[in-house]
Amino acid sequence: MAIVITAVIAAAALAASARWAWWRPSVPGLCVLCYHKIGTPPAGSKLKELWVSPAKFRAQVKYMLDNGYKTLTFSELKKYYDEGQNPPEKSVLITFDDGYENNYKEAWPILKELGAKGNIFVVFNTIGKANLWHNPASEAWVNMATMEQLREMLSSGVMEYGSHTMNHPHLSSLKLEDAAWEIAESKRQLEAAFGREMCAFAYPYGDGAYVPAIREKALEAGYTFDFSFKQGKTRWPWDRKAMTIDRLFIRGGDNNWDLALHLTRGASRL
Known about the structure:
The chain is α/β, with parallel strands linked by helices. The protein has eight helices and ten strands.
């Protein structure tokens, strides 16, 4: 019996070693967390990992604040960059891709309550509509935030915005001039709508972040920061011309242990 118990414990330890990155050393750098939807996934969703429950999101934000992490907006990060300064050692950018209505209804109130800040990469042509780039066979369409909701969040000082293109395409599948339009036009439209500089851009699906010609268009458009979908932390000082900024994808199944590993190791799972 003792042999069986020992074998079970050894197997569990091996499984943990194989799944989690707890044994990796801590690494320095800026943490950028990537969320999508805050809420309950629709029935039959095949994309449940893109949904984080409000309870988990609140627990994760509280964990960061309780452990001395400082949440930054894009404009605050840009101030450090422009002044040639390193952001505080335990800095975190909480980012949301796409601009869902649940970011307004679920995430924003939690951030306000706890005294944290967030940032949304907005797909301009779907403001007030639905996530039309999704195949409804994989997940039912869900509502995007309206212009009024986005303006309310911005005026609170809790949320800021960056661009996620006009229509959320796979940029590498487009002609280069069309990809350039998606990247630059979204910046122009968002700046006109909100009266603020859009200094940040995220590549939909992470596609195009490592295609030099496409990345050059993001730099030419005038973004200070461009964010990939590659897992990891970004060392600072950061070289704008040489590299994108990595992010840490938060899954629906992640708990505070996963979050702690993201923040310290730059990865939760292997």
